Structures are given as structure tokens and as C-alpha cells.
Backbone:
């Protein structure tokens, strides 16, 4: 229980601030591609995460987790975390939302699935960045 509570601190608040910035930028990209340009669910959501992950890397590295060192392994861990979180979150969100909203239009279901995916991704991503991508040695 102490380990779980130790994850609730200033880093979480900073992560939420960075997340709000990424959410505004990413939602504009994702919903714009899907609803205005008629791109697919996967292309729209992936474009969001590819583009905002670059911003997220630098903001979370230096602002949220105050990670001073630089290594390609950290970049690889960050990218792997994003990929796993994305596939997990959106892989869960789409079938779950399609099932729960079976009577609704396909466009409504898919927009809802993207929202659910965003929520799942945020939780998975915080844990992955804190415990894997930007983990502090000795903690």
C-alpha cells in the first residue's frame, strides 16, 4: 500500500499538467482527422500519439520526472512504453465500447472508443513512464 501511495506526489500533478497540454493538442489531431478528414480509427488515434509523444517525451523527461541524464536506452524505453500503452488502451477500448454502445451509430461508438482509449492510455502511461521509462535509479 505504501508503494501505491508513493506514486501520488508532485510528479503526478506535473504529469497531469503535461497531460492536459497533450490532451488538447492530441484531441484536436485525433478527432479532426477522424471527423473532419474521415481517416480511420487506428490512423487518427495513432497520429495523435506519434505526434504528441514527441512533446510528451521532453516535457515529462525534464519537467515531470526531472530526468537529467540522456541515453538512447531512455528513448527506447519511452517509445516502448508509449507503444505498449497505446496498443493496450485502444485495443481494450474499441471492442469494449462497441459492445457497450451496440445500439448507437458506428461514428458515435468510435468517438466514444477514442475517448475511453485516452483515459486508459493516461493511466497506463503514467505508470509506465514513472516506473519504466524515467525510473529513478535507487528508488
Residues:
Amino acid at each position: 500500500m505504501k508503494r501505491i501511495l508513493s506514486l501520488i506526489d508532485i510528479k503526478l500533478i506535473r504529469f497531469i499538467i503535461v497531460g492536459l497540454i497533450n490532451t488538447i493538442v492530441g484531441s484536436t489531431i485525433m478527432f479532426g482527422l477522424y471527423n473532419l478528414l474521415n481517416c480511420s480509427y487506428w490512423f487518427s488515434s495513432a497520429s495523435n500519439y506519434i505526434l504528441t509523444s514527441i512533446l510528451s517525451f521532453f516535457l515529462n523527461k525534464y519537467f515531470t520526472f526531472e530526468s537529467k541524464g540522456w541515453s538512447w536506452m531512455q528513448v527506447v524505453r519511452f517509445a516502448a512504453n508509449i507503444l505498449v500503452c497505446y496498443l493496450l488502451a485502444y485495443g481494450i477500448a474499441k471492442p469494449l465500447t462497441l459492445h457497450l454502445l451496440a445500439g448507437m451509430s458506428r461514428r458515435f461508438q468510435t468517438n466514444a472508443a477514442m475517448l475511453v482509449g485516452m483515459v486508459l492510455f493516461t493511466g497506463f502511461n503514467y505508470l509506465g513512464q514513472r516506473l519504466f521509462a524515467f525510473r529513478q535509479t535507487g528508488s
Notes: Residues 88 and 94 are 10 Å apart (CA to CA). Residues 72-100 form the longest helix (29 residues).
